[in-house]
Amino acid sequence: MEPEPFVIGLTGNIASGKSVVLQCLANLGVLTIDADLVAQETYLPGNPAYEPILARFGSYLALNDGQINRGKLGRIVFRDPAALAELEAIIHPMVTREILDIIDKTKRSVVAIEAIKLFEAGIDKHCDALWAIAAHDALRLERLMEDRGLDEAAALTRINSQSPQSEKIQLADDVIYTDVNFTHTYQQTCEKFSELGLSAFEVTDGDIRLSPLDPKDFLIAAGYMEEKSEQTWEAENLYRLLGQRTVVAFYHGGELLQLMIFRIEQGMAVHLAHAPFKSELLPSQVSFPLLKKYLSGLIDMLIVTKEFFSPEEAKLLGFTYGDDQPPVHPILYNNFLRKHGLMPGEVYFTKIQA
């Protein structure tokens, strides 16, 4: 019988930096769950919250492809506390059930859940450690305006619709502050992770090891990234990368050999970059089977752009054409690709066995 995973609950108000801390944990090999993305998945066409939301808030919210217009829905509920409470009453029980199901099925030893309503939804009762993520109000306002494109009035409406940050801080076991820089946030995350007696995940096969990128190798990593991107990479740039993307480091005999950079969301990972692009020591026939081992338990499907594989390589490595039927909700798949500027015809995918 597999031991139960250690569960870290992350909470904090809007634009506090929760997603950055969650991504830092993902770079330690933790299975990460974004409760907001789980909620969004519940109201895709055919999923449990879809019909109840349209029945309560209006069928006009359905777009041409059937998806619920989340922007319009958000404008309704963030201006009306009663409407927000009704939406949460529909979604929260479904989200909690789905999160517990993910935790129950995983073979990973550590799980992290990001949820604004961690306490209100009762998810905190299923966590072994509770972290509050915080940043001062002016910075949160700036983030909402710059990163999410909200005007000041809309951003303030969202900030003021939530209870004070201090309430979450008082209920949490620990606090991570994200208002210095990415370096400070990543280092805090690693320190608190270590204080819990937890270790980063890695996979080894002979002299080859797949693991998180060790900061002591940042100089080598910066050289790889500069060669690929033709821009200067300081330590803060690499910490920013670790707070935004999943970076898998390949070591050979203890030497950093290559990096693969991914975006992981809702059981899917898309391969965004590779540095160096190809390695004589680790050809695709070696690196991708190892990568599947490393990602097993984190994702259900790995997506790779066609620029990296020839059709022959893709077939040899068990990938299929991206416009075939994916093993996830097709709208979820298409939205994920679109977010990264891709179309199904531009990628291959393969199912990852847990």
Question: What do these coordinates show?
Answer:
This protein has 354 residues and is an alpha/beta fold. The chain folds into two domains: 6-195, Rossmann fold; 203-351, Aminopeptidase. 42% of the residues lie in helices and 20% in strands. The protein has 14 helices and 13 strands. The chain has helices at 18-26, 35-42, 50-57, 70-78, 81-105, 137-147, 152-160, 165-171, 182-195, 218-229, 235-242, 284-295, 311-316, 330-339, and strands spanning 6-11, 31-34, 110-114, 129-134, 174-177, 203-205, 208-211, 246-252, 255-265, 268-275, 301-305, 320-321, 347-351. An eight-stranded mixed sheet has the order 6-7-8-9-10-11-13-12, sandwiched between helices. The mean pLDDT is 92.
Write a concise synopsis of the structure shown:
Helices cover 42% and strands 20% of the residues. The chain is α/β, with parallel strands linked by helices. It is globular, with a radius of gyration of 21 Å.
List strands and helices in order, with pairings:
Layout lengths: L5 E6 L6 H9 L4 E4 H8 L7 H8 L12 H9 L2 H25 L4 E5 L14 E6 L2 H11 L4 H9 L4 H7 L2 E4 L4 H14 L7 E3 L2 E4 L6 H12 L5 H8 L3 E7 L2 E11 L2 E8 L8 H12 L5 E5 L5 H6 L3 E2 L8 H10 L7 E5 L3
Parallel strand pairs: 1-3, 1-4, 2-3, 4-5, 10-11
Antiparallel strand pairs: 6-7, 7-8, 8-9, 9-10, 11-13, 12-13
